[in-house]
Amino acid sequence: MNYEIVIGIEIHCELKTKTKMFSSAPVSVNMQPNTCVNEIDLGHPGTLPSLNKEAVRLSLMACMALNCEIDPLIKFDRKNYYYSDLPKGFQITQQFYPIGKNGYIDIPTDNGIKHIRINRLHMEEDTAKQYHSGDETWIDFNRAGTPLVEIVSEADIRSAHEAMIYVEKLRNILVYLDVTDGKMEEGSLRCDINISLREVGTEAFGVKTEIKNLNSISNIEKAIQAEVIRQTELLESNQVVEQATRRYDDVQKTTILMRKKEGSIDYKYFPEPNITPVLIDSEWLKSIRDNLPELPNHREKRYMDAGLNAYDAGQLIQNKALSDFFDQLIKDTSYVKLAANWCLSDILANFSQKQLLDKSYDLKYTEMAQMINALGKQEISSKQAKDIFVELLKGKDYHLTVKSLNIEQVSDHSVLEKMVEEILNENEQSILDYHNGKDRALGFLMGQIMKKSKGQANPVITNQLLLDGLMKRKP
Amino acid sequence: MDIKSLIKSTSVEKRVEDAVNRSHSVQNALNAMVSFIDPKDQLEALGQLSKNLPFYGVPVILKDLVNMKDTRTTGSSGILDNYISPYDATITKKLKEAGAIIIGKSSCDTFGMGGTNMTAWTGPVHNPYDLSRMSGGSSGGSAVLVASGVVPMAIGTDTGDSIRKPASFNNIVGLKPTYGRISRYGVIPYASSLDHVGVFTRNVKDAALSLEVLSGRDDKDMTSSFHPVEKYSELLTGSLMGKKIGIIQNVVDSIKNPETLNQFNDLCHKLEEKGADIKLIHLNEDLMHAFLPTYYIIANAEATANHSNLDSLRFGVLKEGKTMDESMILSRTAGFGKLLKKRFVIGSYALFTENQEEVFRKAQKVRRLIVEDIKRVLDDVDVIMAPASSQGAPKFDDAATDLLSSEYLIAENYMALANFSGYPSITVPMGYVEGLPVGVNLTAYAFEETKLLDIAYGIECTTGIVDIIKEVTQ
Predict the structure, then answer these.
(1) What's the pTM?
(2) Which domains does chain A have, with CATH numbers?
(3) What value, to the nearest 5°, has the Cα angle with vertex B464 and ends B459 and B470?
(4) Does A84 touch chain B (CB under 8 A)?
(5) What is the CATH number of domain B1-474?
(6) Which of A414, B50, B321, B381 could form a disulfide with B246 if both were Cys (CB 3.0 to 4.6 A apart)?
(7) B162 catalytic per annotation
(8) With contact defined as beta carbons under 8 Å apart, do B277 and B242 qualify?
């Protein structure tokens, strides 16, 4: 039988704020456990939430970038359940009036652009983090109260690959907005994948399972592929898919049951009485919209308009930190293709992602741009550029480096003419070869001149002078 | 003697020592204190403060729901019996900054959830006017400690009438200001949308002075108001000339005790003589019958969530089980009384998805209708008024109440109207019924505390029942 894969994705994304969603405790970035907490995060009696305005701002930015309708009246609700990672015994979330709804993003697929609808985007607070070791459970409350947005897609995704592209694209948008660091491996962006199969041509959804705790983009694709195989086998052998939460095991290459959904919990949602509804000022909304950072789509188009091919542009925008680097570089050079090549090869080879993100390098953009300009004008050779680049990485200036490496260009006509004459005199046979149509002879003669000049002859001028000299000696 | 005179006529040491001694000496009879706080550190800190502060060296008591850093705050519950507050409530800070010396925490119904003070973990609180009678609740401890002269002011909280009812039973002033007027940050909740912080005093001036100190916007409480704080204590005139006072006829009609009615009618006549314009107003009777069920549903629904933090994993009395889930269940089972569990069950029931629309959401709609009705009657008058209780404090073993009678549903529970609406409301002494004190209650429109206090002051001047201390001897 032929099955259609139906996938919906929920993404939890930690917002990059200084303090927590409802308390003034700092948001922990790999801090010692239980040091970024106050009485509010621990749910002490008598504490009350105060809404973090910056978290609202970042959420609004996300809504705008994901084409959501924005509800200007911010309201929160309580989601009630008992669990040791939930200090208050309820989570403050936006069940009834999410800040954003009815959004979408477009993803590229083999069959062209596909519209993936976003059902809702809402704000909430994170839970504490639990560590299990043997019989013991350790709880780190640093994460408790960290601002989150949850982004829920419609069940519009039809393949493992689409799912991966969707998450990748969404993640990239959020990273470009700088609302999150989007690190899946550190849990600052977490995906829950809902997946079911149905017979091709039918409308009704099959029984779905939820895959949680995926820690990389590539695992999304692998996990879905594994789950599709598992569900298909069940259906093919007339067994039923059980509604359950599963996780992907990277070693066994299969999904593993975490817990069955037996009569789902009644969360008894009701409006949070301690947060009076907040009406968003329309001026504030406008200023956020007006100051929205450039999104990856726009940047890609800008690169292509500047002369990059689709592949290079696509490669660059996928890595915002690298793309930011490239943007700095092209402030001072119009050789964008060269600049892109250098970014995608030498920069990536020399800098870690962390270095790129933190801009923790000595290399100066303006100096590198000068090098690219010289290379573009063929004032230096690629080989020289590589030597210069090694020095620029240490934070050195372009001109000083060129001097110290003794690769100052020779562009003086009389000097070059003399050199050309000498080489031609020494290579009678090559002149004949050239005039007999052997193009290789020209390259050989250029090489000889470069050798003589220790690579310092200006290749453009030298080339012209060589051609002139050869014409004069036409037999 | 009001607080201003107390400051002038006594030394800090004397008034604090007197209060501490008295708090101990009445404990056996009243059982009103949960924790005693050694005032030594606070007295030392007082040296840094200006002598002109409104509460300079004035001993006060907090209801045991109010957090004060490094002191025990049990909420009069079992589960928090060992709880030491890691932080100050906003009002605790404000009191300290005003020079007050906090000498202890007073008993209440567990987490303010009751009207008798009989659910307190430390046992019932006795009424100083008759030790066989209840203090009223939930802020019973604070009420009797003010009534018996231990402190001139004590903090209470009021979710249904938990300040204004015990004030009535104890011959003192009980003020619950507008919702949002005093920050709730650091005060253990009952039901967040109905909870108010307020005060007990022995005269209206002190209530006004206390309000000045406690009020104001607090960024830690999003429901607190930006409305400017007035100099309430300096704006009291006591003049009743032309003041429009609406008598809530439904309440008066449902009171059966002739002595209470006489007292009330007598007061109305005297107020008229002083120039007050007494009008009769009627609230929608059907809605009034719905007060209590509406209140119970909303209050308990919010309460069940509010107290879900009490799982004893991070603080509180832990009864260890094999798993964390089991520990939570054991701790909550052992740490809550029967009445509390009942209320949590009711609250949870109201919130279940299958019931929520029909129960909780409907109660919220009824609440809106009630508030509309209160607004309607306040359009024509400055305040609405009625006896704060149909008679004096009940005996502990009083089981005669017919829970479906109008006297119970309306006369004994109408004061929740000020919690539904958030409007300011005050109880002041009215007179004595069968030898027991009974108060009169006034409610005004939101943030009209100045007007409310001025009329209350006028009534106080009329009755002459002011600064009464009921000496307790045992």
Answers:
(1) 0.91
(2) 3-279 (no CATH), 294-404 (no CATH), 413-472 (1.10.10.410)
(3) 115
(4) yes
(5) 3.90.1300.10
(6) B381
(7) yes
(8) yes
